[in-house]
Amino acid sequence: MKKILILAAAAAVLCSCGNKNKYTVEGAVAGINDKVYLFDEEEVILDSAAVKEGKFRLSGIAETPAVAILRDARDQGATFATMLILEPGQIMVNDDAENTYRKRVTGTPANDASDAYAAASHALVDEFRNPNTSDERREAINAEYSQLTRTVMEQNRGNLFGAILLAQELGYELSGQELLDEIAKFPAAMQQTGILVKLKENAEQKIKTDIGQPYIDIVQPDAAGKEVSLKSVVENPANKYVLLDFWASWCGPCMGEVPHLKKTYAEFHKKGFEIYGVSFDKDREKWLAAIDQNGMNWVHVSQVNGFDNQAARDYAVQGIPSNFLIGSDGKIVAKNLRGEALYEKVAELLAQ
């Protein structure tokens, strides 16, 4: 009898542990396909469920919080897809009455925070894009958006959404050391999540590319297939400053920077300014067409393999456009110069 009681107690403990980390995903979404699939970030299917009259239910165990994607097709033919955060509790997925293209994901702390942030940020973006919004108000909106992100991150350091905001929204603008300082403010358990573990690795690498650090060489093929090193460009006696520019033809903001790159290049190339462009394109023809059609007459290289690029890892590139201005001494003198800031910085340096 004693042995039976011990086994029963052990079973109860295991059951309670499982229930503690259990999640359910219940949805009511109009007009979707007859089956939904839950994917992890690597596009591996975690679960699936039949849909009846727009309703579905999935369940599982979330040992650690994780980002997942829910959509109503394995690959092609999806009518909807939405990101959600798998964590213990009941997660609800519903249509958004005010925005037919957005689905509301609520029910647990991280998902509630994500939903509220999305609503607030979308409202600011809509106001910014309104043609009746003044330039002065747009400047204020930029500041409000940045503050919103920081405030929400601070409020959610105890769940995965806070980590997501740090990685996806703030990681680009913070230095490597600043990122490490922010990661250290999260609870120990959150620091062990995949997002923050990867972000910490990225931050440690990012420190190696901070202003004042020596550049890291890159060797990749140009349009003709000939390997061209960043070192050969930096150490060319004719070049006083070299802009290492990460971009891609499919990247709208990257192409928006092209007029500024061309203006700076036209003005200062003969005075010692060169550009070494590294493309994260996957389509060779589109890469070369963008160069030709936009008159981007500087050094270009690419492995034509997207972000799966050693240079992206070496320079801790989390998003594009991204750039590093390198002096003839091989030291990084500036980073992420956008718009007129590039022209102004190069003009200042060459005037010295």
Automatic annotation (TrEMBL):
GO terms for cellular component: cell envelope
CDD domains associated with the record: TlpA_like_family
Entry's localization field: Cell envelope
Protein's GO biological process: cytochrome complex assembly
Highest taxon, organism lineage: Bacteria
Residue ranges annotated for the Thioredoxin domain, each copy included: 209-352
InterPro entries: AhpC/TSA, DUF4369, Thioredoxin-like_sf, Thioredoxin_CS, Thioredoxin_domain, Thioredoxin_ResA/DsbE_sf
Keywords: Cytochrome c-type biogenesis, Disulfide bond, Redox-active center
Claim: Lyase is one of the keywords in the record: no
Protein name in UniProt: Peroxiredoxin
